[in-house]
Target: OsmC family protein
Amino acid sequence: MEFTMKKEGGYTTDFSYGRIDISGDGENGFKPVDLFVASIAVCSGGMLRKIFDKMRIDITDLHVAAEGERNMEEAGRFEKINIHFRITGKDLNTEKVEKAMALSRKNCSMTQSIIGNIEVAETYEIISE
Model:
């Protein structure tokens, strides 16, 4: 990836599917801290979705909510990322969902990259159709 400084502030980069503007103050693009949390959340959600498919668990929706807890006394360092999954489907088995969540955590590259430095707390709820 390459990033180009923007005159109005921040940076930009182009991908085959679009442009991302990034700005530390959030006025001229996404804040890096938001992209960091988003990368953990979406990696986890994407991996969970793949595992559900492999386990033949039929879901109709997977909503992911995430927030980071930061220590502002240590340069705004992340201490914890909270991820909550709302899993919608018919006749979902709690035991299988928990197994899928454990496999997702083990196989998400972003989560594995921060374990030991930042706590990742995952919760879920099942919404029956």
Remarks:
- DSSP finds three helices and six strands in the chain.
- Strands lie at 4-5, 11-15, 18-22, 59-71, 77-89, 119-128.
- The radius of gyration is 17 Å.
